[in-house]
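Quick one: structure tokens for this chain, please?
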Amino acid sequence: MNGEEINKDAAASTEPKLSLTDRLLDALVPARREKRHLSRQYDRLEAFSRAVPLEYCGWDQDGVQAMSAGFCQLLGVEKVESLGDIQEGLAPGDAAALEGLYDRLQQYGEHFDIGMYSRGGKTALKVFGKRGVVQNGRQIFSVIWVMDITDFAQAALKSVEAMGKVEKREADLRGSFNALPYPVWMRNHTLDLTWCNKLYARILDDTAAGAVAEQKELPLTGAARNDVTQRVLAQRAMAKLSPQSLRGHMIVDGQRRLYELIEIPMPQEKRMIGIAIDVTKEEEWATSYERLSASQRETLEQLRTGIAMFDADMRLEFYNSYYEQLTGMPGHWMDTKPKILEVIDKLRELRKLPEQADYKQFKQQWVSRFTSLLEPYEEMQYLPDGTVVRLICVPRPMGGLLLTMEDVTSRLQLETSYNTLMAVQRETLDNLVEGIAVYGEDGRLRLYNEAFKRMWDIKPKALGEEPHITQVLDGLSAFFPSAAWPQMKNLLMSNALEREPRKGRLSRADGSVLEYSIVPLPDGNILNAWFDITDTVKVEQALMEKNSALEEAERLKTDFLANVSYQLRTPLNAIMGFTEMLHHQYFGPLNERQLEYTSNMIEAGQRLVSLVNDILDLSTIEAGYLKLYPADVKVRVLIEQVAHLTQEWAR
């Protein structure tokens, strides 16, 4: 069954039922039946034409017009009798174009299809030019079909604007990609290269268009392991619909660089984008980190402190030999990276843990430190064998803990001995008679004893928190006269600051006398020792006064004897002279007894003269007028003289 038969059947089905009379008349008068059929045909065509969203107007070769009812309304004109009336409803440029197009339609039958605007540009029109021929060919219509496409035009304009924005955005995006210091490329859904930036092309020593045309891939080395190439990476990304990455080296600007290639699928846009990021610095940092880690491990290995590192999973990551020695745990066992709880159990087994009242809680505390410890934790562990261990637990930045263990047994013993020694020293200093003060290099009082505080009458508050020498001196001015205080202050200041050994004395206004001794110490401090010698000075002064009195008495005695001796010399000489005259019998003879008497008198006078001369010589020597010279002495004669001199005393 063809289309015409179908249309006839459809028409027959839609024809109204006729009465018997109408059917008889139609059978008798065929023209009547044909007219009714044509009328129905016209009605159907009219209904169809009104349903079409187009208006038409046309003329045949004889000028007969055919026009739809809404044509004038669509163009905004009152009537259309000629082509000029249609042009009145169009924009000037479109009206001129329509005239030429319609002429060619009438003359040559050239159909046209063009977009135009109504006068004023408010309505967008789609204008078609078609030639219609009546079936018998005797009548030819040149028809102008017009459709209002304002909504379509606005939508198209918006689409064009949106497309322009998209194109501009894509151009900006590609411009941004060109400015990136990384190679960037794009692929279509078949994984063919469709675009690349300038750096991508420069690495390939080509232009962007050339690289795309020849489908060049980046020249990676060391990345095509197991046939994993750049294109294979793109296939994986497209298959998994997730970014895939691959690392390899490339020679860029004469340098070997490490790049990470990333293929990113974009399913909605049916394309892929790829980027190669330079991770050479990361590789260098990783190498530097490995070297630093090796150096740190070597350094930690040399420390005399036990070091153990646990990772975020609580496993033993590193330990040094001193940690192994201190804990007694076998190295081959620790190389298996046991967890912290296993390490604690092992230490307990080896009795390298302090005794715990609640061992379960103790283990739980260690586990919680991996997640809750924010600041370093320190404790002293007293082991069953008497060893004292100083344990410091430090949280690591990447998770886990760093443990340091130090055997401080000897240090504590030394500290105890030191504290005992310091207590003995303090007690000794406080019971010394001397006042002791030690000043630091900065002039602050580092050490003093009770005697120093008592000697200078200093309040305890004034000596608290290591006062400076200037603060100490502020309370000592009362011990000296006002006129002498500046000089004494300078002296006391120099004693505390100058590293020069010296000794001296100073007298205070209250009559006391202090002896000081300044001793520079090896540690840079200066020792000031003060000793109250007031009583000693008083005794010394008394002895000196007594000695002066004795010396004065001796001097008076000597002067007296000298004067007496000098006064005795003249009469003694006279007596000696007369005695010698009598002995020599110048005035007459003498008997034996008289001669003996005169002889004894001469001898006694000579001895007396000798004594007087000796006394005078001693006085002269003491006065400094006579100088002695060494000479030989006959000891026998000297002894005889002394014996003779003392003979009378001996009787």
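The domain at 552-650 is CATH 1.10.287 (Helix Hairpins).
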